[in-house]
Specification:
There is one protein chain. The protein folds into two domains: about 1-150, SPOUT methyltransferase, trefoil knot domain (Alpha/beta knot, 3-Layer(aba) Sandwich); about 170-220, Trp Operon Repressor, Chain A. The chain is about 35% helix and about 20% strand. It has helices spanning about 10-15, 20-25, 65-75, 95-100, 120-125, 140-150, 200-220; strands at about 1-5, 30-35, 50, 60, 80-90, 105-110, 130, 185, 190. The strands form three sheets. A five-stranded parallel sheet has the order 2-1-6-5-7, with helices on both faces. A two-stranded antiparallel sheet has the order 3-4. Helix 1 (about 10-15) runs parallel beside helix 6 (about 140-150). The longest helix has 19 residues, at about 200-220.
C-alpha cells in the first residue's frame, strides 16, 4: 500500500508517521508513506502556496497550481484509488471508512490549510472529503496523520497480534469492553473473577455483554435498529 500526503507544513507529520505502529509497518515494507511538500511545486521565487481569496474576506486560500501540479505528477506515475481532502465539512471519519481505505492500493491525502483549498481542486480532482470531527484545527496535517494511522494498523502484519484490530472499538459498532492486567488485586481493586476463570467461551460472552452495556451507556447512537 502507498499513501502520499500533500502538505504545506510537512514538519507536522514527521513525528506521528515515524514512530510506533506506523513506523514498524513502514520498516516491514507493508506500507510506503510519502510526505510531499507543496512548496516544491510552487512557481514563484517565494515558493508560495497560498493567496488572497477572490471577493475579499479574512484568511488565505491554498492556490490551485501547486496542488494541481503535485497531484498531476503523482497520477502520471501510478493510478490512485482515492484522492482525499481533509476538510471540516467532509464526511465524518469512522472505523468503517478506515476499513474500506485499508483495502486500497494507492491513496493521496491533501491536507487542508489556511481557509481551505481553491474550490476547483475539490470539484475536479478530489474523490473523497473526510472530517475527523466538528471542530477546526490549524491545518489538515493532524487529521491526515490520524487517517493514516487508522488505516495502517489494519494492514495485515502491522500489529504484533493480527486479531487485535478485530476487537477494537467500533469494529462491530460497539465500544470495546474493559480490559485488565496484573496485579489481579491492587489495594482491594479486583479484576472480575470471570477473566481469571480460564473459560474462554464465558469470557467472550462477558466481554460482548460489557461492550453492549458500555455502548448503550456511552454511545447509544451507535446502536441501530434492524
Amino acid at each position: 500500500m502507498r499513501i502520499d500526503i500533500l502538505t504545506a507544513v510537512p514538519e507536522l507529520l514527521y513525528s506521528p508517521l515515524n514512530n510506533s505502529i506506523v513506523k514498524r509497518a513502514r520498516d516491514k515494507n507493508l506500507v510506503e508513506i510519502n510526505v510531499i511538500n507543496l512548496h516544491d511545486y510552487a512557481k514563484d521565487r517565494y515558493r508560495s502556496v497560498d493567496d488572497y481569496a477572490f471577493g475579499g474576506g479574512a484568511g488565505m486560500v491554498m492556490m490551485i497550481e501547486p496542488v494541481f501540479n503535485a497531484i498531476g505528477k503523482l497520477k502520471s506515475e501510478r493510478d490512485y484509488d482515492e484522492i482525499i481532502y481533509t476538510s471540516p465539512d467532509g464526511e465524518h471519519f469512522t472505523q468503517r471508512i478506515a476499513n474500506q481505505l485499508s483495502l486500497k492500493e494507492n491513496i493521496i491525502i491533501l491536507a487542508g490549510h489556511y481557509k481551505g483549498v481553491d474550490q476547483r481542486i475539490r470539484d475536479n480532482l478530489i474523490t473523497r472529503e473526510i472530517s475527523i470531527g466538528d471542530y477546526v484545527l490549524s491545518g489538515g496535517e493532524l487529521p491526515a496523520a490520524i487517517i493514516t494511522d487508522a488505516i495502517v494498523r489494519l494492514i495485515p502484519g502491522a500489529l504484533g497480534d493480527e486479531q487485535s484490530a478485530l476487537s477494537d472499538s467500533f469494529q462491530d459498532d460497539l465500544l470495546a469492553p474493559p480490559v485488565y492486567t496484573r496485579p489481579a488485586d491492587f489495594r482491594g481493586w479486583k479484576v472480575p473473577d470471570i477473566l481469571l476463570s480460564g473459560h474462554a467461551a464465558e469470557i467472550e460472552k462477558w466481554r460482548h455483554e460489557q461492550s453492549l452495556e458500555r455502548t448503550k451507556k456511552l454511545r447509544p447512537d451507535l446502536l441501530k435498529d434492524d
